[in-house]
Amino acid sequence: MKRKLNLNMVYLLILLLFVSSTVPLYAQDTEKNRLIVLTDFDYTEPDDAQSFIRLLLYSNQIDIQGIIATTNNEQRDEIYPDYIRKIVREYNKVQPNLSKHESGFPNAADLLNVVKKGLPQYGMEGVGEGKDSEGSDWIIVKLEEQDERPLWINVWGGSTVLAQALWKIKETKSAKEAERLIGKLRVYAISDQDDSGAWIRKNFPDLFYIVSPGPYEDGSWGGIMSVIPRLNNDVISNFWFAENVQQGHGALGTIYPNVVFGVEGDTPSFLYLVNNGLNSPEHPNWGSWGGRYELYTPDNDTTVEWRIPIVPETRPIWTNAEDSYTPTVEAPYGMSIVNDTVIITGDKITVARWREEFQNDFEARMDWCVREYEDANHPPVVKLLTPANITVKSGEVFHLDATESFDPDGDGLIYYWFNYREAGSCAEEARLFPPNSAKIMAMAPKVDKPETIHFILKVTDRGTPRLSRYARVIVTVEP
Question: Deepest of 29, 63, 395, 457, by most Cβ within 10 A of its Cβ?
Answer without folding.
Answer: 457
